[in-house]
Each structure stands twice: as structure tokens, then as C-alpha cells.
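The following block was generated as part of the benchmark described in Methods. Ligand: pyridoxal-5'-phosphate.
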Amino acid sequence: MTMTDPTTSRKLLTELPGPKSQALHERRKKVVSAGLTQGFPIYIASAEGAILTDVDGNQILDMGSGIAVTSIGHAVPAVTDAVSRQVADFTHTCFMVTPYEEYIEVCEQLAELTPGDFPKTSVLLNSGAEAVENAVKIARLATGKPAIVVVDHAYHGRTNLTMALTAKNMPYKDRFGPFAPEVYRVSTSYPLRDGLSGPEAAAKTIAEIESLVGVHNLAAVLIEPIQGEGGFIVPAPGFLKGLADWTQSNGALFIADEIQAGFCRTGEWFAVNHEGVIPDMITTAKGMAGGMPLAAVTGRADIMNATHEGGLGGTYGGNPVAAAAALATIRTMRENDLVGKARHIESIALPFLQDLKATFPIIADVRGRGAMLALEFCEPGTLTPLASAAKAITSYTNSRGVLTLAAGTYGNVIRLLPPLVITDDQLREGLAMLAEAIASI
Ligand SMILES: *Cc1c(COP(=O)(O)O)cnc(C)c1O
């Protein structure tokens, strides 16, 4: 294992990717499916805090957290200790065969942390897509209705049902169909592009649901409170509340997909909290278990418990090692006030990004909350997406050791998802590199 040098942030010993990474990349091509996104092919040997160390000994500043997963930082001792202890105790029994306490404790934490002052129960699963699938299953059973409404730019996963729920064709859906039926797509609020207030956008969306679906057929509206892969789109204030109130007062369920925005990322435990929205069900994954695979559906007990015994489950769901990691992650988030830390990151990064927007006319929008922030690039003075800018920027920063991610339906968004434990110096260093990249194009 390579040790991180904590006195520095980035440290480049070779060009990126270095020779050892390049050799691994050649090996990979023979045996790993070409269908996987190639990302940035530096192969990681170890990681700590906000720093990734690759097989060539280069230290890279991580501004992506493995897509909002390692929010508490890499290799956090509280988590690695909890995982090691649990591995030594036992690694698997299958909760449906012989249960264990850690599963219950994670569900207790979810019931306490998620919004809503009513009894809640949860089911634990392995991936975000599996959580979304289960939320849809439960919503249909509990309401006795078939229709699921999703919105433009949505991302909910890559399984067959979640491909149907996801908006973007390439690369997620193209030629992988046919897709599951009874999924209806309607408009969302996208302030940069629709110019509507929250209530106006909600009225438009509701009118579309009424005409396309009919409320008596509607099981649930499923929505990311801040869209992730779709481009960190923050709906106009009042949109989510208007849509949730209408949905819930018409006998349907409001499901918030908090898989990317949840668990402290936006400066609240959950992104719906910013809007005072109380969903009937919430799906979580990514940031909740410090990098171990764990996901959940948490919801009103009467809805969650409507399912028959044996109707929900899976071999590995709520695996004891992943559950132990989640408990240590949640404890770390509480003890280190990572909700407050996400707000602190926003207080440094957002004004910096707004200054960039004032300087560079290709930046059409700066948006996001907490440590979930983005820049959208367009041809100056228009809303014509400029995907080439996002591509050039990620490639500029990545090759200089600051890992950034692109996103967006049009591929023209740079998203920042730093670990919440990033230091102020590291954050400023990452932002400066971003500014340099924009200036270079
Ligand atoms: C990542 C993501 C998913 C899918 O999660 P997986 O663990 O990749 O299956 C679903 N919804 C949202 C909002 C996501 O960001």
C-alpha cells in the first residue's frame, strides 16, 4: 500500500496516466467489457481523505467522491475499523434466513434521519437501482395502481425498470429495450431553460400528468429533488412542494430519489429538507455507507408494510459488513457535522464559481447546494449546449491531478462533488485548477 503524504495535496511523479496505469489499462482491454465507461484511467492503489494515490505514486485531488459515494472521505478509520471488526465476526447470513442487529440499527437510523414525524420502516438493498425498483414495486402494491411518473433529465439506474425511468438515451438505454410499461415522462423545473417560477412549473407538470395519465391511475411520482446525472438541476423554489402536495392529496405517493443528493451532500441530511417536502418514500444509497454497497427504501410504515411477507428481499441486501460501514458513516457524519461542512464548502465554492461566471461568457449557469455544485456551459449569449467545453475542462484538470466529472443531458455540465472532509486549501486548489482549465479553452 502506498502512503499518502498528508503535507501536500496533489503530487505528480509521472505524466497522467503513468506507465503502470497504462500497463493496467492494456491488460483491462483484453478481459473487461468495453461497455463500461472508461473514465480517467489512472488505477488507484490507495486513498485517504480527499486524495487518491495511483499505482505510479501520483496523488490526485478527488473532486468527485466516486460519484458522491465517499462523502465522508476515503479510508476513514471509523469505517475501516467497523468493517474489519464486522468481517472478523461474520460476513453473511442472509437477513431473511437468520437476522442480525446491524440491519435493524441501520433502519432505526434511517427512520430517525429521514423527514416526516410518523412511523417508518425500511428495506435494505445493494444498489441504488435496486432501491428504486423496490420503491416502485411497493408503490404499485400499496396503491393498487399502475402508473409511475418520472421527469425529464431523470436518472434512476440501469436495470430494465430503471432504464425505463431514466430519461437519457445515450449511453444508458440505446438498443437495450424494450422497456417496462406504465412509466410516463413529464416536464420538470429547469430554471435556466424554462424560465418558470416553481409554482408555474408545478402547474405545468401537474397538467401534463392529468392529461397523460389521469390521477386515478397514478401510483407515484418519482423524482430526484436535485437531479444528479441530468446536470445538478435545482428546481425553482416551490416546484417540489407544489408537485408533492398535489400528488399526495390525490391518493398517489411522492417518492424522492435521494441516492445522489442525500446524506449531507447538499447541506441538509436530505435535499427535500431545503423545501420542507415530506415524501412518502425515500430511496438512498451512494453516500450512506462510506463506499460499501448499500441502499435502502424508507417510507411510511403503512405503505412499506402493505407488502406480503416474502415480497421484498434479496440474498445480500443489508449485508452485515455494509450495514456496519453505514452505521460508522452515519456516526461520523453526526460527530463531524458534515451537514455543516457541506454548507461551509458551498460558502467557499459558490461565490468562486459565480465570479467565474461573471468572467467567462461560456458559463450559462452556476447552481447547486452544499457540496453538490455545477457549471453549465453554453455558446455565449445562448442556451445552445457546449459539451466540448465540459469535455476539455475535465481532461485539462484530470491530466493535472484534479479529478472532476462531467454530467448533464447535453453533456455540458461540470459537477463538483468533493468529499465533505476536503480541507479549505485543497478546495481552493481544486477551484483554482478549474478556473485555469476554463481560461485555457
Ligand atoms: C446513482 C443513482 C442511481 C443508481 O444507483 P446505482 O447504485 O448505480 O444502481 C439512482 N438514482 C440516482 C439519483 C443516482 O444518482
